[in-house]
Write a structure and sequence with these properties.
- The complex is a heterodimer of chains A (134) and B (172).
- Chain A has 3 helices and 11 strands; from the N terminus they run E-E-E-H-E-E-H-E-E-E-E-H-E-E.
- With 134 residues, chain A is mainly beta.
- Chain A has a 6-stranded mixed β-sheet with strand order 8-1-2-11-10-9, with no helix packed on it.
- The radius of gyration of chain B is 26 Å and the shape is elongated.
- With 172 residues, chain B is an alpha+beta fold.
- The interface between A and B is medium-sized, with 31 and 24 residues.
């Protein structure tokens, strides 16, 4: 992660929730059908777990994460933009919120105007998602 | 006859009588009061201790956090800070729902801080401490853990919520 006072992220929408991920954590972006064909383990973060069989088909794209074996990806509804977040726009999540295991997929939040964008923590998204809820 | 010493003695007796009388007098002292923030939730009145509430905000968009427990509705942006928003109704046996309206009371207690969504804020009032009675023993045990007492406001029952017990339950 680039910590030189700015973070380049890819902002996306999943389940109506705005999220962002460090671009350095992304291997690539593929369509959902191809990801399933390549046996990529698919995560639907907006529902807090593995993507069900039909989910990936409904969602259009998959962000394939770097360094995961077997390959692991996040299913998303829509790509918004790649942008740079200044460190002044980044906030931690409230302590008791981030300590609940269900929300460990997020390491913080970014403010964009009145909007709150959740920052995804890919290192906590296991390749074998069936063994771990996030 | 020694009238001087008799007078002194009578004065002493009268002083003693006066002291006895003063001892029995009821002194009017203003009763200690407690500030309560009275709010409504699903048609009923509840209250927080005023000392637990830092500010009251108009409703603003609550951003859902996937994977959060049911009682955490999400987070809001408050002047550049992220605050969580919880449903007090959840701890009172109601559905934890985000009605997308109402008010958000920001509470802070024992190092925990969070917004708490309510339907409306009715008033902020000083109540005599004696007017706040313990919760009914017939109350559901699960709810009673979060209730500090009950009182009356404009003829209506008000349940006083113990924010510290809610925060103890939600923090890990």
């Amino acid at each position: 992660m680039d910590i030189n006072n700015a973070l380049t992220v890819l902002v996306f929408d999943s389940g109506g929730i705005k999220m962002a991920i460090d671009t350095a954590q992304i291997e690539g972006i593929v369509d959902a059908v191809r990801a399933e064909a390549e046996k990529t383990v698919l995560m639907d973060i907006s529902s807090g777990g593995l993507a069900t069989a039909g989910t990936a088909k409904k969602k259009s794209k998959v962000l394939v994460l770097k360094g995961k074996n077997p390959p692991c990806g996040i299913v998303i509804d829509d790509l918004e933009e790649i942008t740079t977040l200044g460190i002044e726009a980044i906030r931690p999540l409230p302590a008791f919120l981030s300590s609940h295991c269900g929300t460990s997929a997020f390491w913080g939040a970014a403010l964009r105007g009145e909007e709150v964008i959740l920052l995804v923590n890919p290192s906590d998204i296991a390749s074998s998602g069936a063994e771990k809820d996030f | 006859m020694d009238t001087g010493s008799e007078k002194n003695k009578s004065d002493e007796i009268l002083d003693a009588v006066k002291k006895l009388k003063d001892k029995g007098r009821i002194v009017d002292v203003e009763e200690e009061k407690l500030k309560l923030v009275v709010f409504s939730l699903q048609g009923d009145y509840y209250a927080f201790y005023g000392s637990d509430i830092k500010e009251i905000l108009p409703y603003s968009k609550i951003f859902n956090v996937p994977g959060a427990p049911e009682f955490i509705l999400g987070v809001i942006n408050v002047r550049g800070d992220i605050e969580s928003v919880i449903s007090v109704g959840y701890f009172l046996g109601m559905n934890a729902e985000n009605k997308k309206q109402g008010r958000i009371a920001v509470a802070e207690k024992n190092g925990v801080r969070s917004g708490i969504i309510v339907d409306s804020i009715e008033d902020v009032v000083d109540f005599p401490i004696s007017s706040i009675k313990p919760p009914l023993s017939t109350l559901d045990r699960a709810k009673r853990d979060f209730i500090a007492g009950e009182t009356l406001y404009r003829g209506r029952n008000v349940t006083v919520i113990d924010v510290s017990s809610i925060f103890e339950r939600i923090k890990i």
